[in-house]
Write a structure and sequence with these properties.
It contains one helix and four strands. By secondary structure, the chain is mostly beta strands. The chain has a single domain, classed as SH3 type barrels. The chain starts with 6 loop residues before the first strand and ends in a 12-residue tail after the last strand.
Length: 77
C-alpha cells in the first residue's frame, strides 16, 4: 500500500478495525509496530501504520487518510 492508495477513515478506531480485518499473505494477523503522521504533496494528513505478521514476521505499511478528523477535538464513543 502507498500513500496514494490510502484508506479514508473517520477515526483512529476505524484504522484499527480495518487492520484487524487484514491478513498477511501467509494468513497471519498483523500486530501494530509503529504509527507516524505524514502529509502528502497537497498537505493532506495521513497515518502510516507499520505492522508485523504474527506468523511469519513479514512487515508492511498501511496508509490512512485522516483529514476527516485530524486537528478536531476527539470523539469518545
Amino acid at each position: 500500500m502507498s500513500i496514494q492508495g490510502a484508506v479514508r477513515v473517520n477515526s483512529i478506531r476505524e484504522e484499527y478495525e480495518y487492520l484487524g480485518k487484514q491478513r498477511c499473505a501467509c494468513g497471519g494477523g498483523w500486530n501494530r509496530q509503529s504509527q507516524a503522521l505524514l502529509f502528502d504533496e497537497s498537505q493532506v494528513p495521513h497515518d502510516k501504520i507499520t505492522v508485523k505478521c504474527a506468523e511469519c514476521g513479514k512487515t508492511a505499511d498501511f496508509y490512512f487518510d485522516v483529514s476527516a478528523f485530524f486537528g478536531k477535538p476527539p470523539v469518545f464513543e
